[in-house]
Amino acid sequence: MIEHHVRVHTSADRLPREDQLAWKLAAVATATGELDADSVTMAVNRVIDNAAVAVASLLRRPVAVARAQAVAHRGAAPGASVFGTSVRTSPEWAAWANGTAVRELDFHDTYLAADYSHPGDNIPPLLAVAQHTGGTGADLLRGIIAAYEIHVALVKGICLHKHRIDHVAHLSAATACGLGALLRLPTETVYQAVQQAVHTTTATRQSRKGEISSWKAYAPAFAGKAAIEAVDRAMRGENSPSPIYEGEDGFLAWMLDGPAADYTVLLPEPDEPRRAILDTYTKEHSAEYQAQAIIDLARRLREKIPAPDHVRSVVLHTSHHTHHVIGSGANDPQKYDPTASRETLDHSVPYIFAVALQDGAWHHERSYAPERARRPETVELWQKITTVEDPEWTRRYHDPDPDRRAFGGRAVITLADGSVIEDQLAVADAHPAGARPFDRPAYARKFRTLAENAVAPDGQDRFLSAAEHLAELSAPDLDGLFPAVDTEAVAAYDASLPKGLF
């Protein structure tokens, strides 16, 4: 790996483009050659994972709204497919609809380091452009692996959340790079696209704070759509704000650490295998990633507690990120509100722990149902749960060794009689270092479970076969990556929604 030191420069410095981070990212993407076999295997897993969570969300309102907007923008042929329909639309709008479907349930892959990320959000825009441009499965894989490489590098090297900048700024840069690799574009073109994408997708983290709205699902889809538009514009020969990262009025100087900003971003050598995708991990449960191990811990603790109503208090000792983002350290009263939105409950580890402790299970719909959140005994237990930051868990969260990195915590439960029960879990059971790491059969089971009410068994088989042979798929065969669903039921749901402009 090469260490790239990134700092703010004045305009008078005339920083050469080859020394700019955007160029270096573009150079890595455009130099992506023969693909690592393990990375290809994992990329296939993530294509399966994305389709699983997308088909499970088709009849959810935010997904239906995004789909309706996309269908209204049927553009130049051949276009790209939209989950839940037989329609092909402009690739940027297909990316918008499909990206929202993938993100809605907060149920696909994650990577956590200096910042947060869901690298699987790169796949919908890449797949849309591959379909529209006649790309093959091998082209798509090259784009996915390049996008993951860039995304992980940025998340490791540059923290956004400290400055309350949403993590989709890193996503848009990664998607632009992935599109460059997929299309085999010149480095110059990708460089310009990265700069426009970052410039137009920098937003605050209010989308994940307080009363969290459905924009949480739309935000990554917006970044993917913006990246496609940035690539299109750059391919037509247009330039972008430069240098977007290092400029004295740029991203680092005014959005992040200021004029003294200094970051180190690790990127692979030109001939080094692109394996960053192997550092990422998916979810077994539909919840914020920092809650994955907490759910598994709660399920385990349930067997040690006489009854949930015997609990006097629960204190979760965990990392800074978990405490301040989804714990009581966020100081969001909405995280304890029984009438809160699903998106808010998904970011409330006190709620998640309470339900998992009572039910001994977690379900992507039932665990968030309004009647479940308002159950009196749940509300009573929920209010007794708090989090605290433990420096040791924060250190483990940021451990440079992925085999020692931990995203869980320690639960201290005080019962009504004063006795105390303690237990801890470092990583989720499904994590690569967990009790039951996800493998290809696990991804297939997740797909079949989530697709059970949306895709017929033979349709499930056809999709899994297409995904597992992704590297050999021709351009027309990419259609097989969209499981066949009951489009009439989807259309009927869509017709019930209010109309917009389009």
TrEMBL record:
<dbReference type="InterPro" id="IPR042188">
    <property type="entry name" value="MmgE/PrpD_sf_2"/>
</dbReference>
<feature type="region of interest" description="Disordered">
    <location>
        <begin position="322"/>
        <end position="341"/>
    </location>
</feature>
<feature type="domain" description="MmgE/PrpD N-terminal">
    <location>
        <begin position="29"/>
        <end position="262"/>
    </location>
</feature>
<keyword id="KW-0456">Lyase</keyword>
<dbReference type="Pfam" id="PF19305">
    <property type="entry name" value="MmgE_PrpD_C"/>
</dbReference>
<comment type="similarity">
    <text>Belongs to the PrpD family.</text>
</comment>
<dbReference type="InterPro" id="IPR005656">
    <property type="entry name" value="MmgE_PrpD"/>
</dbReference>
<dbReference type="InterPro" id="IPR042183">
    <property type="entry name" value="MmgE/PrpD_sf_1"/>
</dbReference>
<dbReference type="InterPro" id="IPR045337">
    <property type="entry name" value="MmgE_PrpD_C"/>
</dbReference>
<dbReference type="InterPro" id="IPR045336">
    <property type="entry name" value="MmgE_PrpD_N"/>
</dbReference>
<protein>
    <submittedName>
        <fullName>2-methylcitrate dehydratase</fullName>
        <ecNumber>4.2.1.79</ecNumber>
    </submittedName>
</protein>
<dbReference type="Pfam" id="PF03972">
    <property type="entry name" value="MmgE_PrpD_N"/>
</dbReference>
<dbReference type="InterPro" id="IPR036148">
    <property type="entry name" value="MmgE/PrpD_sf"/>
</dbReference>
<feature type="domain" description="MmgE/PrpD C-terminal">
    <location>
        <begin position="285"/>
        <end position="470"/>
    </location>
</feature>
<dbReference type="GO" id="GO:0047547">
    <property type="term" value="F:2-methylcitrate dehydratase activity"/>
</dbReference>
